Amino acid sequence: MEVIRGLANLRPRHHGSVVTIGNFDGVHRGHQVILSELQQAGQQLGLPDTVMIFEPQPQEFFQGDKAPARLMHWRDKIDALAAAGVQRVLCVRFDEHFRALTAREFVQKLLVDGLGCRHLVIGDDFRFGCDRSGDFAVLQAAGDEFGFAVKSTTTVLVAGERVSSTRIRAAIHAGDFAQAAQLLGRPYAVSGRVAHGDKIGRTLGVPTANIPSRRRVSPLSGIYAVTVEGVGPTPVPGAASVGKRPTVNGSDERIETHLLDFAGEIYGRRIRVVFAQKLRPELKFGSLEELKTAMAKDIADTRHFFEL
User: Fold this and answer.
1) Could you say which residues of the chain have pLDDT below 50?
2) Which CATH class is domain 2-161?
């Protein structure tokens, strides 16, 4: 899969494609239907498919730390799109200049001049352009003018309700990872490269594999039973803490995972933490000794969950 970073990196060879546009946060089952329809259109027309995404996501640009929690890092999103068979991703920087584009300027600059769009597949709630003035009707009119087809996808329902990033976010916040997996079409997971931490867990006899969260807002907070991929030939169960570590006055959010019955050097390795069960919320303890006692119980609860 080719990743095109910004409009300035579009080349003549990128002209002529089938296109879809959106955040694709989670690359969930609703997104997967859009991608499938996009790929079918590409095969019928003999054209490559292109997914246009934005960084930061528009709500993050407008709302900052008050924006909804992002389900996945940019790297995880790219990996999920590649796994879905997408051929190209155009990542557009969402800044003040881009925000100010009118709906017609958006169509002209991105779809017509930039990508030479021949077929556009969009979600049924897609809006675009300054003040969200563009909608499906605007795109249909533009398609008639510039010669590209526009197709709106049908809503995907699970248990009678629409699949959405908002619904998945709520399931994760509630610790309902079974429902999150049903909506995503796969278990909920976060990946990252193992970095050196404060070594506090090691001093307490509970060493952890630490990956930085790098999120403005996270859908996760608390202690979880997880499995970790990327440290051995098979997934390793573990107890993960997600948060700012209030007992030791931490400030940055981390995912710290104690791997059960595992010993090995994994610094610098990219791992994938798959969330299975929420054990408890993140708490501030009065001492490191109290924290150590709580961690011992978390590990015992994880062993019980995995029947180890």
Assistant:
1) none
2) alpha beta
